[in-house]
Amino acid sequence: MLIETALFRLLHHSSITGLVGSSIFPGVAPQKTETGIVYWSPEAGREVVDTLEGGSTLVRDRFHISSYAKGFGNYGVAAAMDTAIFNRLNEFGGDVQDLESPPNILTIQRIFAMESPQHAYNGFSDRTEHHRFTSGFEIVYSLERKVLSPV
User: Which domain holds residue 47?
Assistant: First the structure.
């Protein structure tokens, strides 16, 4: 499973989807999206951190996640989404399953909030009429692939 798939699965948690529904997008959101979350990697590629005994490779990837809400009065909505993302991801560690059958598993060692950007208010855009917050995260995970066997 790709790290982007695992991040998508982690963001589809009730604490976040309760605020934004299913409007969670990699890279860029569709033009008419009023409230949503967009995640992307600001860097090309991942960085190898360590090779563990047994040959499993640990890598680090960085992601930025923006939450945005349309309408001048919706600053609080965008801020609440940013806080929910932070609470869900910061210090997370564990296995993440995709929706395949049998499921593929990616083991995330730990997700760390980056110092910058963190809860960065990007302002209100007069052009798009959106409030936007952006937070950054480092994700350390294992490249070892796991697949659950059907029972």
Answer: 3-147
